[in-house]
Amino acid sequence: MSQVGFIGLGTMGAPMLRNLAGSGAGTIVFDLDAACVRDLAAETGAAPARAASDFAGAEAVVTMLPTSDAVAEALFDWDGGIARHLPAGSVVIDMSSSDPTQTVRLGERLREHGVDLVDAPVSGAVAKATDATLSIMMGADSEAAAERATPIVRTMSAVVFRTGKLGTGHAMKALNNFVAGASTTAACEALIAGERFGLAPETMVQILNASTGQSFVTSNVLGEHVVNGRFASGFGLALYAKDVRIARSLTQAIAHPAPVCEAVSGALDDALDELGNVDHTRAFEYWKDQEA
């Protein structure tokens, strides 16, 4: 595509934009942080957007924002809304970790402007965003829209999974992060219990990673960021808690009993209430301070 808009230049968005711009696509960028827009535009050759009308020539717009509400605000509220300037037949690719029920409603609103919506959230954290090896989960009601979106998201990814109808990508992302959150809370709980009984945390991590308790969390987070005290995974506790909360809302919407999801969501929310938006690995410190 000749022109692709990109909205949201944060921790994940910035490296994703670099890979998109490096593919040769013309890019138009916007973020509420004007300095970030200026610096990344200069670095990548992107055109900085100063008004919603600057996106009028975009055949696609990528959003990488914290919440569904932020996506809707950019598309419909900021400077009168970007959506009304997009040409008919263009596609919005929401790569944020959004609420799937809100995604469906957003798709309906965009269709009124002749614009398709594809949800394509990512997994893989900053390292994979940087080297363009993110896993992407893509939902869409229009196969033609999914086909238009695929070459764009492939500039940032190692694999694209087609998940089904609009909203299923965001549902899968939330459920994935619930599973990761369950692993995080369980691993931290085990580490705390073992240490109180006399086990060395380093030994526990080694054994977990050589045994059936092994997971992405034990291999990539527990030793590096918790046991070593770095607490610098790059993923905020507020976003983690939000994603698991979305998964909990999804199970409630379909009336599916999910006691583990409820417990994990509650544990993350409790840590967030006490610590604020710190690196998510610092939840370990909060849980460790809890008395029986």
UniProtKB/TrEMBL annotation:
Q: Which residues form the active site?
A: 173
Superkingdom classification of source: Bacteria
Domain 3-hydroxyisobutyrate dehydrogenase-like NAD-binding spans what residues? 167-285
- Entry EC no(s): 1.1.1.31
User: EC top class, in one word?
Assistant: oxidoreductase
A GO molecular function annotation here is: 3-hydroxyisobutyrate dehydrogenase activity
Keyword vocabulary terms for this entry: NAD, Oxidoreductase
Pfam families attached to this UniProt entry = NAD_binding_11, NAD_binding_2
Q: Start and end of every 6-phosphogluconate dehydrogenase NADP-binding domain?
A: 3-163
Q: Which family does it belong to?
A: Belongs to the HIBADH-related family.
* Name of protein: 3-hydroxyisobutyrate dehydrogenase
Upper classification of the organism? Bacteria, Bacillati, Actinomycetota, Actinomycetes, Streptosporangiales
